[in-house]
């Protein structure tokens, strides 16, 4: 069997995003960079820095995800809706909350229903973050890996 | 440049079958024209394994390197087979509901159009069919007999192994050989060693898998350095794809002309049944080509399509189709994969993909399926796949888990015999047209209850060896809930009876004396999970010798 192609996974993500966007009344209305202000803060909870490896935003993952979301479409819609929802949970937007509170919110989203916006956003944002972050050689600290399999290879 | 005449034989397609046919015809002194629909690739620059971010990139897909296709009836996701649904610890907690149509996977019919065909992204397992495969129906009442025997193919198997460079140890596997493998075996990687040890304790005999990857320099090619990415394209050129083996050697005879980006759109039969010409679009320009001898090697989906596209008033069902068997009997790949994390194991990302095999894991289903070590083919040699598929959670805990567990995944793959359902076939799609305005191939493929039962046996055997190795299961995937086909067969099958087969036992079509088929379409059955390319090559070498 072949491994799932990462390039083609975007189609799956779009399909999954489309499946849930109609659940919220304002689907399709929100767009633009303002609405994604908390994106980096979420990604850094999913992929924080540690002694061996930078965080998602330090690796530029937030910019890559913005690009992957494109100017319109269900994926952008899902992200806009979810981040809007997260910004409305407390008295301040998500990215201004203390780390402990942000961590708590993302942990709750991780266990929430995949058929609801927060759960689906969590899984899709996590998948994209890990895909972009671990594509960077700087993220390989502590792993027995070269930046690319060639030219050294991995003799048995 | 005009390509229309001056050759003795035309070969359509340059994959496993076409490459081997071209080589044999050139060796026998014929001038050969190969028409290949796809582009030529440059291994060192086109393949993704040399640069960071490699894990996000599969085999390259420039325009014209994949055929447009449509999927027809792929069956439904029956609630009775819900137990066979794919899952993974780190993946999305979502699946199609029972009752939904079985979809094609991302890969669907996984193929490459290019100089070298699908061997460009094949892994390079190089298997001979077991002698019993050729008598499958006589021996078991299942499937079909082949119209030839293992002995008829033995010398051609050897020839193909020599040309592509197969490495193995020659340990007994029930497939008698007159000559040793041309290359010594590769050392097994840590994952394979774990399976060999665990298998020995439960009666599964794991052994070295014959591989078209060079264990030492051979002909003009370097040895493999175990980058693990065979299905992303081998940047060293040591893997035995036909571009760097059969075609390269054939071109040295001075008798081979290869035209990439040459799409054959129609074949024309003369009054005596001989094929007189092929219509070709060469890099956008229409040409016609004389066809003194014509080998059709476009693979088990495009070969029937081209025969059907060539229908005329005299041949309303298409060429070579007086039996009405062209496109029927389509066989997909019945596959399963179980993956586990083995505590304490290190370095399972090292070594050669598919380095070990177990031929007969289930005494109650002899010849039904085989297992292999498939960790690297499953993509578990990079951090993205680990984090996204095998591990759950997020944050520092996830990053630490990855560092601790990377290199401990072991995947066991299983591929089994599949007897096609009546509905499984390739037809011309009634609506969708390709860029040239021609109907695309439509693939229908439905798994039978017997196939699903075999999938369960495959799963049982894969789980058994993983459990014995101490693995904790983290991911499983199989054919039940998506159509993925790396090995496809049966759509122009060979036989002795012209009413039930398309070609004779050599691959010459019953209806057209100068039209031969030499690709996976010929297979009357799938075999017991053996990878097919070596058999496609052996059949092609034999057919070309007969035709020359
Ligand atoms: C991921 C993956 C791994 C695999 N691993 C293995 C393995 O380890 N071992 C193994 O034995 N097999 C393996 N296979 C299967 C193997 O690649 C195929 O079975 C084999 O290449 C089929 O050979 P073929 O000659 O039938 O067709 P192909 O190799 O597909 O060649 C057909 C060629 O015909 C050309 N063509 C089609 N239509 C036209 C047209 N109209 N005009 C001109 N040219 C045309 C195509 O462009 C293509 O180049 C693997 C396949 C995949 C996808
Ligand atoms: S593992 Fe060996 S054969 Fe496979 S792509 Fe790498 S160098 Fe080539």
Element layout with pairings:
The complex is a heterodimer of chains A (156) and B (548).
Chain A: H1 9-20, H2 39-46, H3 61-69, H4 74-87, H5 99-110, H6 117-133
Helix pairs in contact in A: 1-4, 1-6, 2-5, 3-6, 4-6
Chain B: E1 9-12, H1 16-27, E2 32-35, H2 43-46, E3 69-71, E4 87-88, E5 104-109, H3 136-140, H4 150-164, H5 190-202, E6 206-208, H6 246-251, E7 256-259, E8 262-269, E9 275-282, E10 285-290, E11 294-296, H7 299-309, E12 334-342, E13 356-358, E14 369-373, H8 383-390, H9 395-405, E15 409-416, E16 425-433, E17 439-444, H10 449-468, E18 471-478, E19 483-485, E20 515-517, H11 533-547
Parallel strand pairs in B: 1-2, 1-11, 2-7, 3-17, 5-19, 11-20
Antiparallel strand pairs in B: 4-18, 6-13, 8-9, 9-10, 12-15, 12-18, 13-14, 14-15, 16-17
Helix pairs in contact in B: 1-11, 4-11, 5-10
The structure holds flavin-adenine dinucleotide (FAD) and iron/sulfur cluster.
Iron/sulfur cluster binds next to loops of chain B.
Describe this structure in words.
The complex is a heterodimer of chains A (156) and B (548). Chain A is an all-alpha fold and 156 residues long. Chain A has a domain at 33-46 and 53-140. Helices cover 46% and strands 0% of the residues of chain A. Chain A has helices spanning 9-20, 39-46, 61-69, 74-87, 99-110, 117-133. With 548 residues, chain B is of the alpha/beta class. In chain B, the strands form 5 sheets. Chain B has a 7-stranded antiparallel sheet with strand order 4-18-12-15-14-13-6. A 5-stranded parallel sheet of chain B has the order 7-2-1-11-20. In chain B, strands 3-17-16 form a 3-stranded mixed sheet, with helices on one face. In chain B, α5 (190-202) packs across α10 (449-468). The interface between A and B is large, with 49 and 69 residues. The site of flavin-adenine dinucleotide (FAD) has 41 residues of chain B, from α1, β8, α7 and α11. Flavin-adenine dinucleotide binds next to α1, β8, α7 and α11 of chain B.
């Amino acid at each position: 069997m072949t491994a799932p192609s990462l390039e083609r996974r975007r189609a799956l993500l779009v399909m999954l995003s489309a499946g849930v966007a109609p659940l919220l009344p304002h689907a399709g209305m929100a767009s633009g960079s303002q609405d994604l202000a908390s994106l980096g803060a979420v990604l850094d909870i999913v992929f924080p820095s540690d002694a061996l490896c930078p965080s998602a935003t330090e690796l530029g993952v937030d910019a890559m995800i913005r690009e992957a979301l494109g100017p319109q479409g269900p994926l952008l819609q899902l992200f806009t809706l979810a981040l809007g929802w997260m910004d409305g949970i407390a008295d301040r937007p998500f990215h201004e909350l203390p780390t402990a509170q942000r961590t708590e919110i993302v942990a709750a989203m991780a266990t929430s229903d995949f058929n609801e916006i927060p759960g689906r956003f969590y899984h899709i944002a996590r998948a994209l973050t890990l895909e972009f972050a671990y594509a960077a050689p700087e993220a390989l600290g502590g792993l027995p890996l070269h930046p690319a399999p060639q030219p050294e290879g991995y003799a048995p | 440049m005009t390509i229309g005449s001056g050759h003795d034989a035309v070969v359509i397609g340059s994959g496993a079958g076409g490459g081997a046919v071209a080589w044999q015809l050139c060796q026998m002194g014929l001038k050969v024209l190969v028409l290949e629909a796809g582009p030529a690739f440059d291994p060192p620059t086109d393949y993704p394994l040399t640069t960071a971010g490699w894990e996000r990139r599969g085999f390259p897909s420039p325009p014209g390197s994949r055929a447009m296709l449509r999927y027809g009836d792929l069956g439904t996701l029956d609630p009775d087979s819900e137990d066979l649904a794919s899952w993974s610890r780190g993946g999305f907690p979502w699946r199609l509901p029972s009752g939904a149509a079985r979809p094609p996977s991302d890969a669907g019919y996984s193929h490459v159009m290019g100089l070298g065909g699908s061997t460009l992204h094949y892994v390079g397992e190089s298997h001979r069919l077991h002698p019993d495969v050729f008598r499958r129906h006589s021996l078991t009442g299942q499937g079909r007999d082949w119209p030839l025997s293992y002995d008829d193919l033995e010398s051609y198997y050897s020839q193909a192994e020599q040309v592509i460079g197969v490495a193995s140890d020659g340990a007994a596997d029930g497939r008698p050989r007159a000559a040793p493998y041309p290359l010594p075996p590769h050392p097994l990687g840590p994952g394979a060693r774990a399976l060999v040890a665990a298998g020995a304790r439960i009666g599964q005999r794991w052994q070295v898998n014959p591989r078209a990857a060079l264990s030492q320099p051979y002909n003009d090619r370097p040895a493999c350095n175990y980058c693990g990415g065979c299905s992303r394209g081998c940047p060293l050129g040591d893997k035995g794809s036909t571009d760097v083996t059969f075609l390269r050697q054939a071109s040295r005879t001075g008798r081979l002309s290869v035209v990439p980006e040459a799409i054959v759109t129609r074949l024309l039969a003369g009054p005596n049944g001989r094929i007189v010409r092929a219509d070709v679009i060469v890099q956008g320009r229409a040409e016609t080509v004389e066809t003194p001898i014509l080998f059709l090697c476009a693979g088990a989906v495009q070969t029937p399509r081209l025969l059907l596209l060539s229908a005329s008033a005299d041949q309303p069902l298409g060429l070579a189709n007086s039996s009405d068997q062209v496109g029927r009997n389509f066989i997909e790949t019945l596959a399963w994969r179980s993956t586990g994390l083995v505590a304490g194991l290190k370095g399972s990302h090292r070594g050669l993909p598919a380095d070990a095999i177990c031929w007969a894991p289930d005494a109650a289903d002899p010849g039904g399926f085989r297992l292999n070590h498939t960790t690297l083919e499953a993509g578990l040699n990079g951090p993205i796949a680990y984090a996204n598929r095998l591990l759950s959670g997020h944050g520092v805990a996830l990053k630490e888990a990855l560092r601790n567990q990377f290199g401990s995944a072991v995947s066991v793959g299983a591929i089994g015999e599949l007897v096609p359902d009546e509905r499984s076939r390739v037809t011309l799609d009634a609506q969708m047209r390709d860029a040239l305005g021609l109907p695309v191939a439509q693939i229908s493929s439905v798994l039978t209850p017997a196939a699903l039962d075999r999938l369960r046996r495959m799963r049982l055997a894969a789980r058994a060896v993983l459990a014995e190795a101490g693995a904790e299961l983290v991911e499983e995937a199989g054919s039940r809930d998506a159509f993925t086909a790396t090995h496809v067969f049966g759509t122009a099958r060979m036989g002795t009876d012209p009413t039930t087969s398309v070609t004779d036992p050599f691959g010459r079509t019953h209806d057209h004396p100068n039209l031969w088929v030499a690709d996976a379409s010929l297979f009357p059955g799938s075999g017991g999970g053996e990878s097919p390319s070596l058999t496609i090559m052996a059949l092609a070498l034999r057919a070309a010798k007969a035709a020359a």
